[in-house]
Design brief:
Structural class: mainly alpha
Low-confidence stretches: none
Mean pLDDT: 81
Oligomer: single chain
Number of domains: 1
Number of strands: 0
Largest sheet: none
Order of helices and strands: HHHHHHHH
Helix content: over 70%
Amino acid sequence: MDNPRRRFTILDGMILVAAAAIAVAWLRGVLKIYLSVLGSARGASLPDRILWGLPNLVPPLVLATFVTLVLRSVRPRPSWRKISYQPGFAACAAAALIVSLQFVYRFSIVAVKQLSDLKTRGTASVLALAQIATDLTGTGLAVMAAWLILMLIRGWRVEPTWIDRLGRLIGVCWIVLYLAYRLNFLLIFA
C-alpha cells in the first residue's frame, strides 16, 4: 500500500468521547475561576468579559490536539515522512510542543510554591490550570509558524482524510483563538 488511509472506527469515536470528558473536567476548573472573577467584576465591559472568556476554549483544543496526534499514529497510516508534510499533523505537533512546554513550566512553578508554602496546596493547581489556559492562547502563533515553514519549503501536502482535516480545523481554531485574544487585548488597552 503506497498511500494507506484509515477510516473512522468505533475506537476513534471512543477515544474522542474520552477526550471530551477530560476536557470538560479541565474546563470545570477553569470556569470556576472565570466565574469568580466575573462575579467580582459585575460592571465589566464586553471586551473584558471576552478577554477573560477566551481561555475557556483552550481545554477542548488541548485535548483535541493530543488526541489527533495519537489517532494519526495508529495504523494504517502513511510513512512518518509523508505525515510530517501534512498541515493537520504540523499544526497539532506545533501546538503539542507549546502545550507540553507550558505544562512543564507552570507545574514546576506550582511544585516550588507548594513546597515553600503549604497553605496554597488546593488552590495552586487550579490556578495553574487557569494560567496555562491563558498562556496557551498564544499557541496559534506556533501553528502559523509551522504552516509558514511548510509553505516555504513547499512541503504542504494535504491528505483528504478525516484525521488531516481534523488537524487543520484544530490549527485554524488555535489561530483564531490567538488572533481574537490579541485583538481583544488591543481593544482593551489601546
